[in-house]
User: Fold these one by one.
Assistant:
Number 1:
Amino acid sequence: MRSTMHADERPATRSRENTRARLLDAAAEVFAEVGLDAASVEAVCERAGFTRGAFYSNFASKDELFLALVERSSSEKLDRVADRVRSLDRTAAPDPSSLVPEVVGVSLAGMEPRLVSELRAQAIRDERMAAAYLQLQDGIVERVRGIIEDIRGVYELRFRIPTAEVARLMVDLADATCERAAIERVGEPETTRQLHERIELLATALITD
């Protein structure tokens, strides 16, 4: 009986995960086209091919959907960075500029700058969004800290400050770069280029002999 129940539940679980993934994919397109404020639940549902009922069985609100989208994007990027770190050449000399590709883009800067700016504006206005946003950011910082610890272990690096603070500075730098890019109407490729340069400078300043 028990094994049958689990077998019955697995297809339902996969179906729910597929619905959620399709809603997130549709949301990414709609948000990129019209922005967070102008995007509607109806538009996301229409793009994904689902009803409002399917939407609300997965997300409580449009804001929750957007946070889930940011979390998915950040997690995927961090997974890729962690994979690159695991394949680092342990015999190479530790050069800050060579570390940039391993840590760049580890925060919200991987998303369209205007959307990230809108997310912060929502968090400032709404306490629930603020709590969710801060929880998301803290999770990103902790994952970045782990990646920095791995890099430090590979190259036997020493930082001037604790790695937790290094991670926080890198995430804050990514946030600030993204925010300015939104104000200047700069797209993602240029934002990423600027972030490369700034994280390289930060890494140079924080790594000690």
Number 2:
Amino acid sequence: MCAGLTVGLGETDTDSVFRRSFSALVLAECIDRDTVVRRQPADRILGWGDRLAGWYVREQDLRGFVPGKGWAHAAAHGADALGALARSPHLDVPELTVLLDVIADRVLAPGTPLLVHGEPDRIAHAVLEILLRDRVPLSILEPWVARLEMGARVKPSRGEDPYLRTGNAQAVLRALYLQLAVSPRQPEVRSDLLLCVVASLRRIHPALLTR
């Protein structure tokens, strides 16, 4: 499965994305299984995590549903895999912080297309899994939210569709707010982080949320 993450990496609009994307999904199942039965050494899980993170930020084919072929969904499957990593007891604050950075890198990368097949919800769920470990402090989370906010407010070039640059960060922040608000599982930082996310959303949408 780790080898599958690199097959055709860098290609776009080819069938190789299915192997990469579903390799990530299978690795997620392997990691979750280890979280239950604890059969793997820590360095193996961390090694899988390095391979997944490296693939996720480098993946160029982020199509969702491919007509006639089905789901490619690399952005969603990668988020699922990062969520599985977050649940692993082998990861602590440094590794969980890296996962947050990987997620932000993917969401904010100029080459990431507008994600319209439910990926923002899956990405926000991966963030929630990180938060539910109750290890990452607000001193790390608040700057991370601010980074997404900055991406959600970036000024486009003249003639450029602004939503193509800001839409993913906006969608992920909204999805994170929703999960913090209604999920039956909540992290210890929920109240403070909700205030932080709400403040960011109000600055992103002043005409809608400040009047």
